[in-house]
Write a structure and sequence with these properties.
Elements: E1 7-10, E2 14-16, E3 33-39, E4 42-48, E5 67-70, E6 72-73, H1 82-85, E7 90-91, E8 111-112, E9 122-124, E10 126-128, E11 134-137, H2 144-147, H3 151-159, E12 169-182, E13 196-208, H4 215-219, E14 235-236, E15 265-266, H5 336-339, H6 361-367, E16 411-413, H7 416-419, E17 434-436, E18 444-445, H8 452-459, H9 465-469, H10 482-490, H11 571-574, H12 611-624, E19 625-626, E20 631-638, E21 665-672, E22 691-697
Parallel strand pairs: 1-5, 18-19
Antiparallel strand pairs: 2-3, 3-4, 6-7, 8-9, 10-11, 12-13, 14-15, 16-17, 20-21, 21-22
């Protein structure tokens, strides 16, 4: 199948809606029909009205040619003339009885309704001449649907007990169709190892109509003794269709849509050329786009929606980074369409957690945001509030998972024979029997980036024009500018105001380096990148009372805010108001107000309708960046100073300084952390092996 091409399943090559009206004898089947055709400009399952006009759009100019498949089941086992009565089997349907046992199904037809080319199929029990007189077979007093104990009879008796004729009209949500596929489509079916998995479902409406008599005659009581009148309801004038609205009521043109519109129901129209007549407005969209997705475009590809589908990415490849776990649906395949959602205009609420109880209605909403069908990896507990509601902390899984090295030679398989009989069997049994060298060649340590050019190289392709040409960015689209990154890592914006400590007031802020430091924090790396498991662990600092909140815990952060999923901005922006109002914008997840802003000409770039687009920047980071350096340089200077044991807050004079004989000892080491070493508390095993170069200066 080509893109924008559709496959329709039909019960037979042509399905007509009963017969045309007549006064003396049958004149032919109704022109209202669905027919599988293969001649341009009508290719696919084509719909015709009572005037034999095509209702399906032109497949040469408006939509792509459709694909159609007639599917059928086996005829009843007690039928004996199936080569004539059912040469193509029994068409797929939801209202006929199942021919499980002899007599369960309809009696086998014996005649053509009229010996005329317009009636080529043997599907009747009596043959009529052009005057309507029976010339062969036997007229039956009871419809087959009411004779057998089948679905139509059971349904009719729900409305009118002991009715002689089937009910008429549309019954909504009569059956449910399930779409299934093999768990592994590349292998054969196995009930345990490779079963069928349900991936979608939709309600099926049933319309029962009389195609051989007026509805008034069918529902009119009669007979001797009189039989009860049957029931006639309204008729559906359109097919049930997915409407493209997300399960949360948000969004349009959602490809994985579960929602359907209730079909319109109208009464039978009087008169007309056919016994069954609901007018020319019977609406279906076989072969092409559902009506609620809008009129399909004709260029560059016919049949494509004007607003691109919102969809879930199917990568169909191994994971490229651990963060691609963020794209794994948090539901079974059978519930994906029901759970799938897009987010409202503007930025979704991806904040970690601001509730104080799990019973808070906002807690559930945050837990499944921003995409209902995905896990919220930003969901993290407010560590500054002892009464805060617990959070999922799904981001912690990234501390334990990784993706295999992409290049040959970076991992070695462990043959089972090598570890048999050792304690390693459980740890290295397949598929975990691989040993990787764990080298991170080429990864950039986010905590040591000090040049704009390094940041540009790391983020190339994900910076807008202003962010790429200037460290500050231009305008308001500066979320991923170098300065914003530094601000997040530093945790604050330097005050620019020089202040000093006053002995009589030790709480007065002090800042001897106002262009680089902040009196609230004892470091230029208050927002350092580190493992999420250590995010809440930080030393207390002085409470300077510059804000209403207790500032002694300003270095403590939600666990999610210390890694790549951190919120944007300073520490007090990430954890404002004591952590109760966290920033809703993640540093590496573009806000909707940032370039590229989605307009009418670039709807395919709408990040709030595609999780892959929204998370593409943060998803790539684990392969490119780290929070530590694998190989790094250590410079050490050692000096000796006098210390007063009664006042350890200040250093005294340097040893031998008064004689001019003070000495400083200098050394330089290159450390390679990729070298494996052992660790036993209190013992030096082989940690020195990590020192690959050392030099001492006197």
């Amino acid at each position: 199948m080509f893109p924008e091409q559709y496959l329709t399943l039909a019960p037979r090559m042509r399905t007509t809606f009963g017969s045309r009206t007549y006064t003396t004898g049958p004149v032919g089947p109704s022109e209202q029909a669905f027919e599988i055709q293969n001649t341009a400009p009508a290719v696919g399952l084509i719909q015709f009205d009572s005037a034999s006009s095509t209702l399906t759009p032109n497949t040469n100019t408006n939509i792509l040619p459709g694909l159609s498949l007639a599917i059928s089941g086996f005829p009843a086992g007690d039928w004996t003339n199936t080569g004539v009565t059912s040469p193509d089997g029994i068409g797929l349907n939801v209202s006929e009885p199942l021919p499980i046992n002899p007599g369960d199904y309809y009696a086998e037809p014996t005649n053509r309704y009229v010996n005329d080319p317009n009636y080529p199929v043997t599907d009747a029990y009596v043959e009529l001449d052009i005057a309507g007189n029976a010339i062969a077979g036997a007229v039956r007093d009871q419809p087959e649907d009411m004779r057998v104990s089948g679905p139509i009879r059971h349904l009719t008796e729900e409305f009118v007990p002991n009715a002689a004729d089937p009910m008429l009209g549309t019954v909504l949500n009569y059956r449910t169709a399930f779409l299934q596929r093999l768990a592994d489509p590349t292998r054969g079916y196995h009930p345990t190892l490779n079963p069928y998995r349900t991936v979608d479902q939709i309600a099926i409406d049933l319309t029962i109509f009389s195609g051989e008599d007026n509805a008034g005659n069918v529902t009119k009581p009669g007979g001797d003794p009189p039989v009860p009148q049957t029931f006639e309801g309204d008729y559906a004038t359109e097919s049930r269709q997915r409407d493209g609205v997300g399960i949360n009521g948000v969004g349009i043109n959602v490809l994985f849509s579960y929602s359907t519109e209730r079909p319109n129901l109208d009464a039978m129209l009087p008169g007309g050329l056919d016994f069954f007549n609901v007018g020319p407005a019977v609406s279906t969209t076989f072969n092409y786009l559902n009506e609620n997705f809008g009129a399909p475009v004709t260029t560059p590809i016919r049949g494509r929606p004007a607003v691109p589908f919102a969809m879930h990415p199917w990568l169909n490849r191994p994971y490229a980074t651990p963060h691609e776990l963020m794209l794994v649906p948090a539901c079974s395949a059978g519930r994906l369409f029901e759970e799938f959602s897009v987010v409202n205009a503007g930025d979704p609420a991806i904040q970690p957690e601001s509730s104080t109880a799990t019973t808070d209605p906002a807690y559930a909403e945050t837990f499944i945001s921003p995409f209902r069908h995905l896990l919220n990896f930003f969901h993290s507990e407010n560590v500054k509030d002892s009464s805060a509601a617990p959070a999922a902390e799904f981001h912690s899984v990234f501390e334990f998972v990784g993706t295999p090295p992409p290049f040959r030679g970076e991992s070695d398989a462990v043959p089972p024979a090598v570890i048999n009989g050792t304690p390693l069997v459980d740890l290295y049994s397949a598929p975990f029997n691989f040993v990787e060298d764990n080298r991170r060649i080429g990864k950039v340590n986010l905590n040591t980036i000090e040049e704009f050019s390094t940041w540009k190289g790391l983020m190339q392709g994900h910076l807008n024009a202003g962010e790429y040409t200037s460290a500050t960015g231009t305008g308001t689209a500066t979320q991923l500018s170098y300065n914003e990154f530094v601000k997040s890592r530093r945790g604050y914006v330097p005050t620019g105001t020089r202040t000093t400590v006053i002995d009589a007031d030790a709480s007065t802020p002090v800042n001897y380096l106002p262009n680089q430091l902040d009196p609230r924090f004892p470091t230029q790396f208050a927002g350092v990148f580190k493992r999420s498991t250590a995010g809440h662990a930080a030393p207390e600092v002085r409470n300077l009372s510059t804000t209403a909140q207790d500032e002694s815990e300003d270095l403590r952060r939600r666990k999610v805010n210390v890694g790549l999923l951190r919120a944007a901005g300073r520490l007090d922006e990430q954890e404002s108001s004591g952590g109760t109002s966290p920033n809703e914008v993640s540093l590496f997840v573009r806000a909707s107000t940032q370039t590229p802003v989605v307009g009418t000409t670039n709807l395919s770039q709408d990040r709030n309708r595609n999780a892959f687009l929204k998370y593409q920047t943060v998803n790539r980071m684990p392969n490119l960046a780290s929070d530590n350096s694998q190989t790094f340089l250590v410079r050490m200077t050692l000096g000796f100073f006098e210390v007063d044991p009664t006042n350890t807050n200040n250093l005294g004079a340097e040893y031998n300084e008064d004689k001019g004989e003070n000495q400083r000892y200098h050394a330089m080491f290159i450390i390679d952390r990729s070298i494996p070493v052992g660790f036993i508390p209190g013992q030096d095993v082989n940690a020195r092996d990590t020192v690959v170069f050392e030099r001492y200066f006197q």
